[in-house]
Predict the 3D structure of the following.
Amino acid sequence: MGMPGYEVDPEGIRRSGIGIGTSAQQLKSDWQAFQAELAGFGEPWGNDDIGFLIGGCYQAIYEVAAECYMENLEAMEEDGTAVQAVAANHFAAEQHNVVEINRVRDVLG
C-alpha cells in the first residue's frame, strides 16, 4: 500500500547522483589547483631551528588533512554512483510493476 503524496522520481534521483559525482570531480580539480598554489610558496618558514619545527608541524598536519580530504572526495564519488544505482533500481522496479499489472489486467480481461 502506497503512502499518499509519496512519489519517487527516478530521473531526478539519477540527475542528483550525476550532480554529486560532478561536484566531487570539481572539488578534486580545485584541490589539485590549491596544492599547486601551496607548492609555489616553497618553504616560507625558513631554515633555522624554529623554521624546521614549524615546517615539520605543517607537513604532518598537511598530510593528515590531504588524506582526509581525498578520502572524503572518494566517498563522495562512490555516493554519487550509489545514488545513480538507486535511481536505476527504482526505474527497473517501476517497469516491472507495469508489466505485472498489465499481465493481471490481461488475465482478468
